[in-house]
Amino acid sequence: MRAEILKTYKLFINGQFPRSESGRYFQIPNPKTKKPLANVSQASRKDLRDAVQAARKALPGWSSKTAYNRGQILYRMAEVLESRKPEFIDEISKMTGNPKKAEKEVLTAIDRLVWYAGWSDKYQQILGTVNPVALPYFNFTLPEPQGVVGILVADELSLIPLVSKLAPAMVAGNTLVMIASEKFPLSAITFAEVIATSDVPAGVVNILTGFKNELIPHLAKHMDVNAVNYTGTDQALVKLLQEEGSANVKRIIAHPEPKGEAWLDNQKAQSPYWINSFVEMKTTWHPIGV
Amino acid sequence: MQISTSSTVDQVGIEERAAALSKRSIKKQTKIEGIKLAISMIDLTTLEGKDSPGKVQALCQKAIHPLEGNSSVPSVAAVCVYPNMVSVAKKALKGTNVKVASVATGFPSGLTPLPIKIEETKRVVEMGADEVDMVIDRGAFLAGEYQKVSDEIAQVKEACGKSHLKVILETGELETYDNVRKASFLAMQAGADFIKTSTGKAAVNATLPVTLVMLEAIRDYWYQTGKMVGMKPAGGIRTSKQALQYLVVVKETLGDRWLSNDWFRFGASTLTNDLLMQLTKEATGRYQSLDYFTID
User: Fold this and answer.
1) Which chain B positions have a beta carbon within 8 Å of A218's beta carbon?
2) Which residue in A91, A236, B10, B71 has the most C-beta neighbors within 10 A?
3) Known catalytic membership, residue B36
């Protein structure tokens, strides 16, 4: 009889897995027995600061990679996730108590990564435009990354809301600070292990676990965060994001949908227009011969 | 020539002490005061081959008003430039308290003939440098030619006239703490007003332990002679946290009387923006972005 070695769920900042600088952690319960299932790091505002710093540092490198290379890296994440399927299904089942749905969720997540990997060199073509102008200019509009993007992961299901936001944000060339689901944080951190082993440069994705009420105000106020992406219907939260975000004219994107099972529906939870939520449009007037 | 340093350096002890002193937590009002003090101690530096009068003028504006629109932030202590930029800086800083410092004596290697070093020093003083940052000849020092190094410092000091002389030891090239202590005493005995860690051009620049060794040398020299000598760590100090650690080490080694820009300076450029960002963070509660601070 050997003692089981339990995993320490830590944060994911700058390609590394530190504990919270505050030393704090919280417990999530087993839904059946109500006993503690695991200890999870409770990130502080200083962890958030470190994550934003890492994301800022990673931005020039990630956003200037070729679209093709970003696609390759997303595909690599799908490969690594595929090879760790059983582990994810097991872990999600433990959190939700529903193995069947867990499997569907993991398979959808893998396919969704591949799907967005394919969009890496195509979204520019459908989101970008050539604009007719009545002057001797070639006028065109191209999507560019927003920059450092904060993503508030929905508290529904576990892995799929995270992957469904991460993939379009990454493929568009942004660097990410994600605040994982408060209810289901385990698979977020295990997914960070996938990121860490898939040629994703350090700092491109940072994942914090902890209490949203504590972290969101600091994210919203942070002058070095260019956009915050939220899925849900909490109007007070949206108001807070918009008010605090106004100091540096943050792009605040709030989508009421999808909800619940809809995250698993490809018609409702994946679209090139999701990439559109993670880009800024730049229009160029280029003089041409008269 | 023998240099009397009264004792040698305990390497482990120095590093432990520096590490212990850097663990102090400095928050809120104390942090704000510390940051403002650190800003007032900066020698805002640009020492690049591509320096231009335009860049030096911009730097001088930043030196006078580090944070545009906020008069509670003090000016920095000085602007430190190459000799050819001294007159530009002098003109831009006219009527302010900000001093002009110039590097000289074949900076950064110090491998030019002595008459040229002296001539260079005289010229930068004529052009208006209030302070001269000279480099020692490390090759000569490491070869044990202490007399030569000492004579050079003494002659450059004479050429400085009323301008202050800072002697750069380039500690990154001196190999041991004992050498750093020796070089510190040598410079102080030869007439240095300040001793300075490094040029910023070597692989290793200012570190906390090296600074502590030099501060202790200053303290021991002060006990022996009653003469106060200033200290300037330079290169590699980029964050507010580091700057506050240096201030703690100064306070604990030399006491309050060294905590002014008459006796302590930071040779830095990027440090300034980090200090300003931290200051703004304390005032607004928002973590700051470099996007909103001037590039220098």
Assistant:
1) 287
2) A91
3) no
